[in-house]
Amino acid sequence: MKRVKIKHHTAASIQVKDHSKPKLSAYEWVSDDQRHELSVKNNALTLPNETGKHVIEITADWPNGNASYTFVVEVE
Predict the structure, then answer these.
(1) Distance CA 48, CA 45 (A)
(2) Could you tell me the end-to-end alpha-carbon distance of the chain, in angstroms, rounded to an integer?
(3) pTM of the predicted model as reported, rounded to 2 decimal places
(4) Separation CA 44–CA 34 (nearest Å)
(5) What pLDDT, in 10s, does the model give residues 40-74?
(6) pLDDT at 52
(7) N or C: which end of the chain has fewer CB within 10 A?
């Protein structure tokens, strides 16, 4: 998976194309079976601050289903 390089203290905006309002959650995967919850407020995600690569998962839950998006960031 291609990584996105970011600076320390970076936040990301989460946008839903159809303008629906799913319940959003975000996690940093620290191992195959362990993850830490990240802060999501007003569709803004606070990304990790520690230098290195981080696997991030965003989940979106609607009344009729859900979706999960995963990406890698590298904090420089």
Answers:
(1) 10
(2) 18
(3) 0.88
(4) 23
(5) 999 999 999 999 999 999 999 999 999 999 999 99
(6) 96
(7) N
- Tell me the domains of the chain and their CATH numbers: 3-75 (2.60.40)
Nearest to 20 by CA among 63, 68, 70: 63
* Distance from C-alpha of 67 to C-alpha of 31, rounded to nearest angstrom: 21
What six digits make up the tokens of 35?
């993850």
Tokens, residue 47: 């990304």
Q: Which residue is associated with the tokens 């009344």?
A: 63
For residue 46, the surrounding DSSP H or E stretch is strand 44-46
The amino acid present at 54, given as its one-letter code, is H
DSSP string, 2-27: -EEEE-SS-EEE---TT---PEEEEE
Tell me which amino acid residue 21 is: K
